TrEMBL record:
Record's signal peptide: none
Alphabetical list of Pfam families matching this protein: Beta-lactamase
Origin organism lineage: Bacteria, Pseudomonadati, Bacteroidota, Flavobacteriia, Flavobacteriales
Protein name as annotated: CubicO group peptidase, beta-lactamase class C family
Cited InterPro entries: AmpC-like, Beta-lactam-related, Beta-lactam/transpept-like
Domain of life: Bacteria
Domain Beta-lactamase-related stretches: 31-338
Gene3D superfamilies in UniProt: DD-peptidase/beta-lactamase superfamily
SUPFAM superfamilies: beta-lactamase/transpeptidase-like
Amino acid sequence: MKIYPLIVSVLISSSAYSQIGLQESFSKILNTQVHSGSDPGLSIGVVKDGELIYRGNRGSMNLEYDLPINSSTVFGLASVTKQFTSACIGILEKKGELSVNDDVRKYIPELTAYSDTIRIEHLLNHTSGIRNHNVLLNLSGFDYEHQGYTNKMIEELMFRQRGLNNAPGEKMLYSNTNYVLLALIVERVSGIPIHEFAKQEIFLPLQMSGTFYKSNLQEIIENQAYPYYKNSDQYLQPKSLTLCVGAGGMVSTIQDLAKWAKVFLDPDHEFSFLKNFITYQDTLNSGKLMTHGRGMFVSPYKGYTTFNHSGRDLGMRSQFICIPEKDLAIIVLTNFEDINAVNISYRILDLFVKDNIEKKEKQKEHFPNHLNKFRGTYQELNSDLRMEIFSKKDTLKAISSFGRSATPLVPKTANSFYRLDSPSIVYTFYSEEGSEVDLEVDFGGAIFYFERVQLESNPNQNLNDYTGNYYSDELDVNYTLSLENNNLSLSYPNNENIILTEGVKDTFGANRRTKYSFNRNIKGKVVSFEVASEGTVKEILFKKIN
């Protein structure tokens, strides 16, 4: 009998020693990110076995007054917001007030009646094909520095759109507009603004007192971390005039998100139905299981399933990731865009999750004997972004037209590779004849699609063919094309003298992830062009008006 206290004492000491070791590791990670208390910084939270076992802060939440980040500092969430907008839809479905199978136009009849029905589930899992409003604003010459936009402005912009990127359910294309429209559905079905609905149905019951959707730009947010970015070694603070919620627009704290994490980790939680709803993986029209749920990505990592989503906006980043099998969640919130919240979360994750040796051995079996079949120039669909794939010393490498250096790729299967510096990014090559896609790049669940291209030298002999004034009624904007020093130059509001370069016949780009494809009539005269951009917008028609 006397031996039990001794054993208990040893176990407690061992546990305490383990905790001390983890605390030291967490602190080291924080210290590598912020070198001075006068710099902007971050907060991290680690939830393990139902408890917030670590909460750490570094840096300043307000450089003007040199106020340090503290345990209850409020940060912007950006796209981490999407899981909460999804949760609002899940609650309304549980109440019987809508179904994810409902036609979106049942609630938003102002949307164009496309040939294929867009359902609520297509908005949730980013397969609707609806164009990304951020890209549309860029193409219209929107001045982010001096203008702001609201949900109503985005809704009116979308009601003018007549084209989709893909048939609903065909493929996943990440689009913020999906979640702006979901916010509108929440408001029209519930009869109250989404910030009120979420407060009543989620935040109050979970006692998340520091979490809310922003409802106006003038409200005072106590203990708020101000966002910062750097320009020429000087910190600057972005002054956003935008108030648009659904895809983003929320703020929260480490403590509150730790409470939210338990929804995903505790199978007996009163809100566990939301975990099932948000992480549910729909299938594409082809029958392929999706890696994006309904507001979160469902991604494998070292043999475990993770639920995760990151956020990024000018001056901030965020990351929320859970592994239910380990009863583990990691939250990273920053107020400086150069601090990579995603990478930090995986560094912390690796303290709890070790490499699967058996899996590594299997990867060796997939090392291809011939890398030549993957080499070539690939261009993103609906974009002018190009990717060069080449091999050097038996290693496949990739470099994009935006990149500064080539990234080594490590074999995963016979036709897929992952980045040496970021294993969550996977390149998968396809060789089927007639396939629209030759390469998919998976950024942790967000898929980007590429086709192999053969570039030509000087394919367009007469640049005068393309000059003139063009108008798009979907964007309500004029574009002017002219010749400047024997180059084709594009100008539109807040964008002057953009030099367009050519690669194939009647197609131009400017290394801005935007492609301009010109159309000719039966006499061979240029009469219009179509703009595609960032992979999430295509076929915006501009008609020649002179």
